[in-house]
Amino acid sequence: MRMTRKRFLEVSGLSLVAVATKRVVGALLGARSGQARALGAPTLTTRWAMVVDSAKCLKKEGCTDCISACHKAHNVPVINEARHEVKWIWKEPFENAFPSQESAYTKVAFPGNPVMVFCNHCDNPPCVRVCPTQATWKREDGIVMMDWHRCIGCRYCVAACPYGSRSFNWFDPRPYIPALNPDFPTRTKGVVEKCNFCAERLALGQPPACVAACPEKALVFGNLADPKSELRQLLQSRYTIRRLPELGTKPDVFYIV
Amino acid sequence: MRDRGVIYSGLVIFLGLITFPVWHDLAAGTTSRGPEPVLPAQEKQCVAPLSYMRTSHMELLMDWRDGVVRRDLHSFKAFNGKTYTMSLTGTCLSAGCHANKADFCDRCHNYAAVAVYCWDCHVEPKLARK
C-alpha cells in the first residue's frame, strides 16, 4: 500500500494514542497494587541508627572495648602501618571528625578526647552510588551492606566515602588476625571492608558488638522508624550533630558531644 | 636391513615408555580407588536428598550465600520439613556433620581437581580451634 500523507497521519496518531493508553493503564494499575514507594512515600518499619554519647564514652580513659569487640568478632586484621591498616571502628580527634565545628577552643577543650567513628550507614550513600557491581548496597532496614563475594576491589567506594570509613585489604589479612572467629568469615586480599552494623548479630536479635561491649553504654543503637524507641527519645531530648551534614549524605550516626 | 636390531630394540623401549602411565597405575592400584569421602558418623540425612547434593551441592551453597548476604534470609526449610540455619561453617561444618573438611570436601575436590575458593574467606572450625 502506498504511503500517503493521510495514511502517515493516521498511523502516527494511532501510535500516540496507544502509547498514552498504555501509560495511563500502567499508572492506574500501579496505584491499585499499592505501590506507595513508587509515588515517593516510603513506609519504613525499620531504620537502624546509632547515637554516640561522647561524654559517656570519655568517662573511662583510654578505653578501646568497642574496637576490640568489633575487630575480634569480625576477624579484622591488625596491621600497624597507617597506609595499610584495616579498621571498622576507630577514634578520631574532634577536629577531624567534625571539621566544620572546629575552632581554636575545641583544640583546647578536647585534646586527647577522641570521637568514636565508623560507617555512618548514610541515607544517601555515595559509596552505593559508585559501586560498579552493587557489592555495596543499602538494605531495606537502612544498613549499607557489603557482599565480599561480589566486590572486585576497584576502591571507588573508598574514594567516594567522605568519612574514610572504608578500608582496603592490600594483602592477605589472615596472617594478621590475632584470633580467628569461626562464626564470621575473613576477607581476602583485594576487597574493601567496613562496619556492617553487625548485620549477622541483628539477624539473631542481638545488638551490635560495640554496643554490647561498651561499659558506659555510650553507644545507643535503635530503630529510627519506631517513635517509641530509646534512640528516638534520645534524639528528641538531646542536641545531636552528625559528621559532614553539608555534603548531603544524610548519615544515620548521631553524636552527642 | 642392516640396522634391524637397533630399530627393533628402540621401538620396544619407546613402546614401554609411552605406555608408562597405563602399566604403572595398574601396578600401583590407584586407578581403582575413588575419592572415598568420610561420611558423618552421627547425622544420616543432609539438608537435601543425596542425589541432589551429589549433582547440585554448589547450587545449594550459592542459594544460601545469596540468601544470607543479599536478602537477609537465614533459615532454610529442608525437603523433610526440618529447619536449618543457612551457614557453611555453622551448619555444614558443624560438629555432627561434615566437621572435617579434609576428610570430606577435599577428598572429592582433590580427586576431580576442582578448586574451591570458599576457604579463602570462610574459616574452618579446625583452624579456629588451634
Number of domain modules of chain B = 2
User: How large is the radius of gyration of chain A?
Assistant: 24 Å
What's the end-to-end separation of chain A, in Å? 79 Å
Q: DSSP strand (E) fraction of chain A?
A: 5-15%
CATH architecture of chain A: 2-Layer Sandwich
Low-confidence stretches of chain B: none
Outline the structure in words.
The complex is a heterodimer of chains A (257) and B (130). With 257 residues, chain A is of the alpha+beta class. Chain A has one domain: Alpha-Beta Plaits (2-Layer Sandwich), CATH 3.30.70.20. Chain A has helices at residues 5-32, 54-57, 65-73, 94-97, 104-109, 126-130, 156-160, 199-202, 209-213, 230-237, and strands at residues 48-53, 89-92, 115-118, 136-138, 144-146, 167-168, 192-193, 219-223, 253-256. In chain A, the strands form four sheets. Chain A has a three-stranded mixed sheet. Chain A has a two-stranded antiparallel sheet with strand order 2-3. The longest helix of chain A is centred in the first third of the chain and has 28 residues, at 5-32. Chain A is elongated and about 90 Å long. Mean pLDDT of chain A is 91; it is low at 34-41. In chain B, 52% of the residues lie in helices and 5% in strands. A two-stranded antiparallel sheet of chain B has the order 1-2. Chain B folds into two domains: 1-32; 50-129, no CATH class. Chain B starts with a helix and ends with a helix. In chain B, 7% of the residues are buried. Chain B has 130 residues and is mostly helical. Chain B is built from seven helices and two strands, in the order αααββαααα. Classes of the chains: A alpha+beta (257), B mainly alpha (130). Chains A and B meet through loops of A and α3 and α7 of B.
Write the layout of secondary structure elements.
The complex is a heterodimer of chains A (257) and B (130).
Chain A: H1 5-32, E1 48-53, H2 54-57, H3 65-73, E2 89-92, H4 94-97, H5 104-109, E3 115-118, H6 126-130, E4 136-138, E5 144-146, H7 156-160, E6 167-168, E7 192-193, H8 199-202, H9 209-213, E8 219-223, H10 230-237, E9 253-256
Parallel strand pairs in A: 1-9
Antiparallel strand pairs in A: 1-8, 2-3, 4-5, 6-7
Chain B: H1 4-18, H2 20-28, H3 50-71, E1 75-77, E2 83-85, H4 88-92, H5 105-112, H6 118-121, H7 125-129
Antiparallel strand pairs in B: 1-2
